[in-house]
Design a protein that fits this description.
Structural class of chain B: mainly alpha
Helix content of chain A: 10-25%
Shape of chain B: elongated
Distance between the termini of chain B: 75 Å
Strand order of the largest sheet of chain B: 1-2
Largest interface: A-B, 29 and 21 residues
Largest sheet of chain B: 2 strands, antiparallel
Radius of gyration of chain B: 26 Å
Strand order of the largest sheet of chain A: 2-3-11-8-7-1-4
Strand content of chain B: under 5%
Structural class of chain A: mainly beta
Helix content of chain B: 40-55%
Number of helices of chain B: 7
Number of strands of chain B: 2
Distance between the termini of chain A: 41 Å
Number of strands of chain A: 11
Oligomer: heterodimer
Chain lengths: ~200, ~160
C-alpha cells in the first residue's frame, strides 16, 4: 500500500504569459459511461490527472453536445467537499437542450434522467504556453464516478431556455480536482475527440 | 459502372427531396456507409440528411467507387503515434490497413487498441519472423555459425 502524500509540488504564481480566461467552448461531447473501454483507455505517463486516450467499446460512440449563447454550459463548476478521511470534489455540468418533443424526451431527456455519463468540454483557457502545449484545453468530467442528473427542468415561460430543457449533471466524490485529455499536442487531442463521435 | 450511375441518379433525387420519409432517410444512411465507409449519425439539423446525400453524391462522383471495407479499425478514442517524437498520428478515420499492419507487426501487444482486425494477419505476426530470418541468411547454414563461434572463442581467450 502506498503512502499518499499531500505535499505541494509547485509554486502558486500568476500566469503572465497566458492569463487565465473564463469559460468553455460551445461544443463538447457526452459518452454513456457504460460505453467506455476502461481496459484500453490510458493515463499519461507523467500525470495522474491526464488521460492520453479514452477508448470506447466496440460499436459504441460519443455524442456531440452543442450549446448556444455567450456563456455555453453556464453553471458548470467544481467544488470541494470536506470528508471524514479525505476531501473530494463535486463536478456540476449544466447542459441546455433547446428543443422539445417526443423524440427529444425519449432519446435525450429520459436517458439523461437515469443514465451515467462522461463529458469532455473544451476550456477557453488552453494552456498553449505550457510545457505540454495545449494540455489544459480538454477537461473531462465524470471519469471516476460518472455524471448523473441532479436537476432537470422544463419551464415553459423561461426567459433563458424559451421552453427548452435545462439539465444539470453532477459527479460527486471525485478524487481529483480536474481530469484532462491530452494526446501529445492540441491537434492530436482534437483528432482524438473527433474520432469519438465519428 | 451502371450501378454507380444509378446510385448517382438516386442521390441526386434524394439531395433535392424536401420531404424525406423515414425509409428514404434509412436509405441515405445505408448509402453513406457504403460510399464513405463511415456510419452517418444525424444531428437535429433539418438539412442533415440532404447534406449527407450531397456529400455522398460528390464523393461517389469523384472516386467512382464504393468505399472498401477496412480490415483494421481502431477503437474510438484511440490515437496511434507510430513514431515517437514525430507529429504524425492516426485515428480510426485516418488509419489505413497498410499502416495498421505495419504498426501491429512492430507492436503486436497493442491489438487491444483495435475494434476490428484481420484475424489471420494477427495470428501470423509472430510466425513470420523465423521465415524472414531464413531468407536473409542466405549463406550456407552449416559454416556460418561455426565461424562465428570460433572467432568468439578466440577473442574471449585473449
Amino acid at each position: 500500500m502506498a503512502v499518499c502524500d499531500a505535499l505541494l509540488a509547485k509554486a502558486i504564481e500568476v500566469n503572465c504569459e497566458e492569463p487565465i480566461v473564463p469559460g468553455l467552448e460551445a461544443n463538447g461531447i457526452i459518452i454513456n459511461r457504460e460505453d467506455i473501454d476502461f481496459g484500453a483507455s490510458e493515463f499519461a505517463d507523467n500525470s495522474v490527472n491526464v488521460l492520453k486516450s479514452i477508448a470506447l467499446k466496440t460499436g459504441a460512440k460519443a455524442y456531440k453536445v452543442a450549446q448556444a449563447g455567450n456563456t455555453p454550459f453556464t453553471g458548470t463548476q467544481t467544488t470541494m467537499e470536506a470528508g471524514t478521511y479525505h476531501n473530494t470534489f463535486t463536478n456540476d455540468v449544466s447542459v441546455v437542450v433547446l428543443d422539445n418533443g417526443p423524440e427529444v424526451c425519449s432519446e435525450i431527456i429520459d436517458k439523461l434522467a437515469s443514465g451515467e455519463f462522461v463529458m469532455v468540454l473544451e476550456n477557453k483557457h488552453k494552456g498553449l504556453t505550457n510545457t505540454n502545449k495545449g494540455d489544459a484545453a480538454f477537461q473531462i468530467f465524470g471519469w471516476y464516478q460518472g455524471l448523473k442528473a441532479s436537476e432537470i427542468t422544463n419551464e415553459k415561460y423561461s426567459e433563458d431556455t424559451d421552453g427548452g430543457w435545462l439539465t444539470t449533471l453532477e459527479e460527486t466524490k471525485a478524487p481529483k480536482s480536474g481530469m484532462f485529455v491530452y494526446a501529445g499536442s492540441y491537434d492530436a487531442t482534437k483528432e482524438l475527440i473527433d474520432s469519438l463521435v465519428a | 459502372m451502371e450501378q454507380i450511375q444509378t446510385i448517382l441518379e438516386e442521390l441526386r433525387g434524394l439531395a433535392v427531396n424536401y420531404s424525406l420519409t423515414p425509409l428514404l432517410k434509412r436509405r441515405i444512411e445505408e448509402l453513406h456507409l457504403k460510399i464513405t465507409g463511415y456510419v452517418f449519425y444525424p444531428t437535429r439539423c433539418g438539412d442533415c440528411y440532404r447534406d449527407a446525400a450531397i456529400l455522398c453524391y460528390n464523393t461517389l462522383k469523384k472516386t467512382n467507387t464504393m468505399a472498401q471495407e477496412k480490415k483494421f479499425l481502431l477503437k474510438r478514442g484511440i490515437l496511434l503515434q507510430p513514431e515517437f517524437g514525430k507529429g504524425k498520428f492516426y485515428t480510426r478515420l485516418t488509419l489505413t490497413d497498410e499502416l495498421a499492419m505495419e504498426y501491429l507487426t512492430k507492436n503486436p501487444a497493442d491489438v487491444y487498441k483495435f475494434e476490428k482486425v484481420d484475424k489471420d494477419f494477427v495470428a501470423n505476426i509472430g510466425k513470420e519472423k523465423p521465415q524472414a530470418a531464413e531468407v536473409v541468411n542466405d549463406t550456407p547454414k552449416e559454416q556460418k555459425p561455426q565461424e562465428v563461434a570460433f572467432k568468439g572463442g578466440k577473442k574471449s581467450k585473449k
